[in-house]
Design goal:
By secondary structure, the protein is mostly beta strands. The chain has 5 domains: 82 residues, no CATH class; 90 residues, Immunoglobulins (Immunoglobulin-like, Sandwich), CATH 2.60.40; 93 residues, Immunoglobulins (Immunoglobulin-like, Sandwich), CATH 2.60.40.10; 90 residues, Immunoglobulin-like (Sandwich); 93 residues, Immunoglobulin-like (Sandwich). The chain contains 3 helices and 37 strands. The strands form 9 sheets. Strands 5, 6, 8, 9, 10 and 11 form a 6-stranded antiparallel beta sheet that branches. It is elongated and about 145 Å long. It starts with 11 loop residues before the first helix and ends with a helix.
């Protein structure tokens, strides 16, 4: 109960008070006073650990007894250093709290462990490992990586580099051959070190011997054609450990100084800044490791425009034609000649016109020349690069002479076009309805134009107004206006001329429309 004096016994607070003068003067955060309804000191067992009291070595001597004493509304009983319990007013136990400091920012958090740590390369003195970035980096970012290793059977981890590695690949150098190493990678940021990412198994430091093998790109397995002045950059990858010795030859001789060769542990680069014709040839690369070697060849062809053809001659001139012949150029541009271009120029104007292009023969005949004009001719050679810059011009001039020509019209025998009438389209049987006009059609040919007659039941129709007869360009028609039942029968079209006559017939049937009884009554 509040105000009840506590029994005098050695409590944890008394022990703390005895040790308080001997504590080091280190400032400690203020400890709040015990609440007013706290149980008396005798409720705690004598052998309980001093967990609720402030540690003696963390409090100043003059504050320890005050903070350890319970607070009450009346007098507060508490042991002193001499074991006497004086009565202290309750107001004296109240300690003013200092103002609270601003809330500090949350502490930086380390990243997660690096992922997929694996071996990239190993030899007898170095080990190259690679890894992937951590899954979680956090707001603090990533400062770099630390690579550590230790020998198998020990726990002495050695940091491999002096500074943090910014990349995900690192080579550990100056290792001893035949050592077995464990390797781990730690990501570092402001929050500190992450959990390490380690290799799954230890690595034996030794040279991994591999026979040399050249891998020629597909484009270089056939002859590589380049034009004069182009840049050449050939990359030849290969395999082999330890680092192979690479050498190049051109047509069995060392390469020229114009050809730059750069070798690494995995490929060789041949570089020519501006290719020339003399760079053409067969290049051989040799990759050698100890007593093993591999060879490959690359054919390079540097091409250029061809020279002009040789010995262009004007062989003959006749009528409106001229015949030429020539020889292939002495310089084909280091590639096959694909054709020739022949041009002509009138000596009056001097303007050149192409008459034949991509022509494959060494002789040509130029036609359609103009009478009275003189012509010069020249020939260009062509290859896959283009047309030759110069041409070969004929020394002679082809002159087309003016000759007296009398035009005589050809005589054609007169042809007899006379022909007896012949119907090309006959009449066809028809059926008509009473009161509805119908028409009969047929076509006839003959020379001279035949005379057309229409007959009904073998009787000439003549100029009966019930019928309309027409014949135009061999098309004959007979129109029967509003036929009745008596207009049915056999109709005949007859054609006559000096050569003979012809006739065609058809049967016309005129039907009466039978109305129903109801319709007849309506008609009445």
């Amino acid at each position: 109960m509040p105000g009840k004096p506590a029994p005098i016994k050695k409590s944890p607070a008394k022990k703390a008070a005895k040790k308080a003068p001997e504590a080091s003067p280190v400032e400690a955060p203020p400890v709040e006073a015990a609440p007013a309804d706290a149980p008396p000191a005798e409720s705690a067992p004598a052998d309980a650990p001093p967990a609720e009291a402030a540690p003696a070595d963390a409090l100043p001597a003059e504050t320890a007894p005050v903070e350890a004493a319970p607070a009450a509304e009346g007098l507060v009983d508490g042991p002193t250093a001499e074991g006497v319990t004086p009565a202290v007013p309750a107001e004296a136990a109240v300690v003013e709290e200092p103002p609270k400091a601003p809330t500090p920012p949350p502490p930086a958090v380390p990243t997660s462990a690096p992922l997929d740590v694996s071996v990239d390369d190993v030899n007898d003195s170095s080990l190259t490992i690679k890894w992937n970035a951590p899954h979680t980096v956090g707001d603090s970012g990533l400062d770099g990586y630390l690579v550590e290793y230790c020998k198998d059977g020990t726990t002495d981890w050695v940091v491999a580099q002096e500074e943090l590695s910014p990349t995900n690949v690192y080579c550990i150098k100056n290792l001893s051959c035949c050592d077995v190493l464990h390797v781990r990678v730690v990501a570092v940021n402001r929050g500190g070190r992450s959990e390490p990412g380690s290799l799954a198994e230890p690595v034996l430091i030794r040279e991994v011997a591999e026979r040399p093998k050249i891998r020629v790109p597909r484009i270089l397995k056939s002859c590589l054609v380049k034009q004069v002045g182009e840049q050449i950059n050939l990359v030849i990858p290969f395999l082999g450990k330890p680092k192979p010795v690479v050498s190049w030859l051109k047509d069995g001789q060392p390469v020229d100084t114009r050809v730059n060769i750069r070798n690494s542990h995995k490929d060789s680069i041949m570089f020519i800044r501006s290719a020339q014709r003399e760079d053409s040839g067969t290049y051989e690369i040799t990759v050698k490791v100890d007593s093993f070697e591999d060879k490959a060849t690359v054919a390079l062809q540097i091409v250029d425009r061809p020279g002009s053809p040789a010995n262009v001659k004007l062989v003959d001139t006749w009528g409106f034609n001229a015949a030429l012949e020539w020889s292939p150029p002495k310089d084909n541009g280091n590639t096959e000649i694909t054709g020739y271009t022949i041009q002509k120029a009138d000596r009056k104007t001097g303007v050149w016109f192409s008459v034949l292009e991509n022509y494959h023969r060494l002789t040509a005949t130029i036609t359609d020349l103009i009478m009275g004009n003189s012509y010069s001719f020249r020939v260009f050679a062509e290859n896959q690069v283009g047309v030759s810059e110069t041409s070969a011009v004929t020394k002679g001039v082809a002159t087309i002479q003016k000759t007296g020509i009398v035009y005589k019209a050809p005589e054609y025998p007169e042809r007899d076009y006379s022909e007896a009438p012949r119907f090309t389209t006959p009449l066809t049987d028809r059926a008509a309805t009473v009161g509805y006009t119908t028409k009969l059609l047929c076509s006839v040919r003959g020379c001279p134009m035949p005379k057309i007659e229409w007959l009904k039941n073998k009787v000439i129709i003549g100029d009966d107004p019930k019928y309309r007869q027409n014949s135009t360009q061999g098309i004959c028609s007979l129109e029967i206006r509003k036929p009745c039942c008596f207009d049915g029968g056999v109709y005949t079209c007859r054609a006559k001329n000096e050569q003979g006559e012809a006739a065609v017939s058809c049967k016309l049937q005129v039907k009466q429309v039978i109305l129903p009884v109801a319709d007849k009554e309506k008609g009445k």
